[in-house]
Amino acid sequence: MISELQYSSSLTGASFLLYELKQVIGLKVQGLNDKEIKQRVTEENLFQYKYESSIKRSLPSVLRRVNALDETLFQMVLEEPLETGKIINLYAIMKTDRLFFEFMDEVIREKYEFHNLLIETKDLNLYFTVKAEQDNKVAGFTEKTVAKLKQVFYKVLFESGILKDKKTGELSRLLIDEDLKEYIIRIGDGQFVKAMGH
User: Fold this and answer.
1) Phi, psi at residue 51, to the nearest 5°?
2) Largest Cα–Cα distance in the chain?
3) Distance of CA 183 to CAs 67, 143, 176, Å?
4) This model's pTM is above 0.85
5) Which InterPro entries match (predicted)?
6) Do the Cβ atoms of 133 and 139 come closer than 8 Å?
């Protein structure tokens, strides 16, 4: 359950990583375990990163996301259009990152519900202030970490298609494939679909 997850700032080293997610799912489908995947990604530079340190930073998050998905979702990421892959990646981020899920659930979902399709800096500031009051771990984040998390939240919103325009903060509603939506609800994860505004 998401409520059992600790709040963490691991998203600062991760961001959206859809290309990386696809690479790792491809290896998973071939039957490789996490250790073998780490080896292949590093040795063959499958993420096409300039520095190995970047792989070390992002791979744990990618593996966590992949391990939160099942075979059906793997196939969808590999075979369905890019938009479906984006939605599944967003779902995997929410499933593995409590701070981001609650942001989607408490801030973005509410905006959709009230037809207020605009996100502003103050929305993020307020969210982090409230979380810091509720949780000691979040309260212990440095200003630099919080600033980086805000940046990454924006980036994830933008790359998933929720944030239409970075400058104006205009949001758009996600179009979720009906089969995907029904499948996520059927496996008991309807709360994530709701957080995406559906």
Assistant:
1) -120, 140
2) 49
3) 17, 39, 11
4) yes
5) BrxA, BrxA_sf
6) yes
